[in-house]
Amino acid sequence: MIQTEMSSDNPQRDKMGQILKAAERATNLTRSLLTFSRKQELKLEQFDLNDTIKNVEIFLRRVIGEDIKLIISLKEDNFRVAADKGHIEQVLMNLAANARDVMPEGGIFSISTDVIEMDETFIKMHGYGALGRYVVISVVDTGVGMDETTRQRIFEPFFTTKETGRGTGLGLSIAYGIIQQHNGHIHVYSELGQGTTFKIYLPLMQRDAHSSDVKISLQNQVIPGGRGTILVVDDEASVNDYLKKFLTDLGYVVLLARDGQEAIDIFRAQKDEIDLVLMDVVMPNINGSEAATEIKRLSPKVKIIFTSGYPYDLINEQKLFTESSRILMKPLIPTELAVTLREILAIPN
Ligand SMILES: Nc1ncnc2c1ncn2[C@@H]1O[C@H](COP(=O)(O)OP(=O)(O)OP(=O)(O)O)[C@@H](O)[C@H]1O
Ligand SMILES: [Mg+2]
């Protein structure tokens, strides 16, 4: 506003410009820091990854500018993933910004998609990955590339080779965090003078040819899948990670909370999307039963499955159970969990 009131020859104009630039940089940095630290805020949806790439194309073009040629080649297929659209777009934008910076004289920036099956050979050969089918996005630039020392550090927060004020070193650590949260992998190949290739792997949602439900097989057992959004609450990170992978493979959209308070917060924000809460009973601070009381206050008809490693009788004393809630003892048995979910969600067989 001040600038518009200044005459064009006002000597203070330059200083105003500086202030604006500084404010813009602060905005960007703050935004990056927020994305970097607020990891629990994924909003998962099921969508075709190719569509998302097509949608961000015009933004990518704007980021890389006119001197860099953008090539997008998508394998025509239905690449369904359960992911946070905004976050995936951000990963692509961060990669594009980096590509722009390493090709000041122009070059080629390309994005392509494909499907791969990660099997034991793949994992052994690459030293990363987990079994399953993935959509792989290859992001390639013809820029200056990087040496081995840089390559090893690029995903570190605040690692940057750019001058102060140009780079914060958060772009790739944000990308890394986002892909990890999606149970995916991001990997880089680069040599000095040879350009750079990023490979992003995101778990592909599997569709059975004969039914709309997903099925996975575990030790020769076929486990029935389902649809819907499940809020998983457990203070044990390994349990959350396992349930997320397992339920995502079954076709569910999974939200995670690490304790009762987080569960309440997420439920309050997304109660219309959440079909069922799968919650540990014994947790520090606000436990599962207290969280359930609050969650039921927000939505009386909510469906809840409690999980517990403690003896049934002790837990049952807390009178947690009504028609719409159930308890499963830990360790959770995959088939039992999958069947109970379908039952409570009333998915017909
Ligand atoms: N496509 C690329 N080619 C060569 N080097 C790269 C490429 N992408 C990233 N790097 C290297 O990795 C470093 C870290 O990248 P990152 O995106 O995390 O941070 P930044 O670009 O320096 O800063 P910010 O993204 O926060 O503005 C970069 O400074 C650069 O040295
Ligand atoms: Mg960057």
TrEMBL record:
<dbReference type="InterPro" id="IPR036890">
    <property type="entry name" value="HATPase_C_sf"/>
</dbReference>
<keyword id="KW-0902">Two-component regulatory system</keyword>
<feature type="domain" description="Histidine kinase">
    <location>
        <begin position="1"/>
        <end position="206"/>
    </location>
</feature>
<keyword id="KW-0067">ATP-binding</keyword>
<keyword id="KW-0808">Transferase</keyword>
<feature type="domain" description="Response regulatory">
    <location>
        <begin position="229"/>
        <end position="345"/>
    </location>
</feature>
<dbReference type="InterPro" id="IPR004358">
    <property type="entry name" value="Sig_transdc_His_kin-like_C"/>
</dbReference>
<dbReference type="InterPro" id="IPR003594">
    <property type="entry name" value="HATPase_dom"/>
</dbReference>
<dbReference type="InterPro" id="IPR011006">
    <property type="entry name" value="CheY-like_superfamily"/>
</dbReference>
<dbReference type="Pfam" id="PF00072">
    <property type="entry name" value="Response_reg"/>
</dbReference>
<keyword id="KW-0418">Kinase</keyword>
<dbReference type="InterPro" id="IPR001789">
    <property type="entry name" value="Sig_transdc_resp-reg_receiver"/>
</dbReference>
<dbReference type="Pfam" id="PF02518">
    <property type="entry name" value="HATPase_c"/>
</dbReference>
<keyword id="KW-0547">Nucleotide-binding</keyword>
<dbReference type="InterPro" id="IPR005467">
    <property type="entry name" value="His_kinase_dom"/>
</dbReference>
<feature type="modified residue" description="4-aspartylphosphate">
    <location>
        <position position="280"/>
    </location>
</feature>
<keyword id="KW-0597">Phosphoprotein</keyword>
<protein>
    <recommendedName>
        <fullName>histidine kinase</fullName>
        <ecNumber>2.7.13.3</ecNumber>
    </recommendedName>
</protein>
